[in-house]
Amino acid sequence: MTGTARRRLAAPTLAMLPRIADSLSFLYAEAVRIVQDDTGVCAQVESPKGVDRVNLPTAALACILLGPGTSITQPAMATIARHGTSLVCVGAGGVRSYAGIMPASLTTHWLEKQVRAWADDQTRLQVAIRMYEMRFGVGTAPAGATLAKLRGLEGQRIKALYRMLATKHGIKRFKRNYDPDSWDSQDSINKAMSGANSCMYGVVHAAVLALGCSPALGFIHNGTQMSFVYDVADLYKARVTIPLAFSLHASADPEREARRRLREEFRALKLLPQIVADIQTLLDPESTPATAGDRSVDVVHLWDPHLGPLPAGVNYGVDSFDAYDSFDLQVE
What we know:
The chain has 332 residues and is of the alpha/beta class. The protein contains nine helices and ten strands.
């Protein structure tokens, strides 16, 4: 088989690509070179025996986290983008999320819903209330609650969760601390929690990008390009990353163990499909699960405030100047 034939076989079609909700969660890469070969994308790993190649199932991944020492070629990035897989640049161990790359073929359907909900103070508050009730139960938000009230209630619940988990694992005292500048001096729980949260941010970032939403338009967080990512990730911390971190209080390598265990949690809890469905419910409570995470390319249309969406690729010009009889056309 020639190289051209192999490349054609490796080229994806829309029918071949899985939905984001069906994808594997994330792959963390560090100190490797990611390249495109004749059959797909692979990671080149240097070893004492030479350079080993590991094929990456990019079409089945929701997100690739690019850690320190990782380089990637333009052909590999183009293939990953065609597959609809998000690339997120992160710090060592997955801590800190710096930037993400969004495929250009995405529909703006959910972005438009996000912008409409975000731009109005009342609908923005309603989304924030839905976020709170997703975390702590329907009806737990007091009637007429403000964001300040919700923040106070959330803080009380999280402190109570810390106390309960500390008692469960025999820990006398715990204080949440996240300081990247003094990372090595932190205890195992804080390291595990920060590492797990960062991976969670990467996966949520991938889900947000896969839906075509803006990571910057948050409903509770504000002022950063990751605001909406932080909003959505907070929905799962009390259920996933916080208990996971406390369970690793005696781990010798809490960051690495947190990443490994988090991948297992994503599979066991089917969390990625849940993230996609939850984002859609937050932005449009009337949405149906049948449309969740569809990667199909929407047909580009034109906006009209009175007629609604109009087909693109159509010349709407008139055939003659007869339609402009009411205008005074002057030729100088």
